[in-house]
Specification:
The chain is α+β, with helices and mostly antiparallel strands and 157 residues long. The protein contains two helices and nine strands.
Length: 157
């Protein structure tokens, strides 16, 4: 009987561990890991949202794709920041595809700290419809000597 209680207890601990790991995997998928170490979202004095997005750049280039459901929003500004500051590079392509097709697209944008991607691409705003949206970006010509964090602060209504 004592052996049976030990087996039941071990099974309960195992089930609890598997449940916890499953919760972590489903609630925090690896596709979202590009946003690690980003500052939390904030709000400007005018009530606009600042939504930071982060990508780590290794060996001078990156490719990033993420698909998720988003609310409808209008992005007025997408300002580039680097950590360490002073980085420069080239965004080979940025494409945002929403439920009805391409909503934002730009190619060959030179970037440095403070570049507003919306203005640099010739848009007044990026108006994104709510629904499943895919964000794709490719960049190159960044300093390959050390890892760089590439941040984009989105200011949205």
């Amino acid at each position: 009987m004592n052996l049976l209680h030990k087996c039941i207890r071990s099974t309960k601990i195992f089930a609890l561990t598997v449940s916890f790991l499953s919760l972590l995997i489903f609630c925090f998928p690896t596709a979202a890991m590009a946003d690690t170490n980003c500052p939390p979202p904030a709000t400007t004095e005018e009530g606009k949202q600042i939504i930071p997005k982060c990508i780590e750049i290794h060996d001078g280039s990156f490719e990033y794709t993420n698909t998720k459901e988003i609310p409808q929003r209008s992005i007025q500004s997408a300002t580039v920041r680097f950590s360490p500051s002073g980085g420069t590079g080239l965004l080979d392509e940025i494409k945002i595809t929403g439920p009805d097709g391409i909503e934002f697209h730009a190619t060959d944008l030179p970037v440095k700290d403070g570049t507003d991607l919306i203005q640099a691409a010739g848009y007044s705003a990026a108006n994104l419809k709510g629904g499943m949206t895919t964000y794709e970006a490719k960049g190159s010509h960044f300093d390959p000597s050390s890892p760089i964090k590439f941040y984009v602060d989105l200011i949205a209504h």
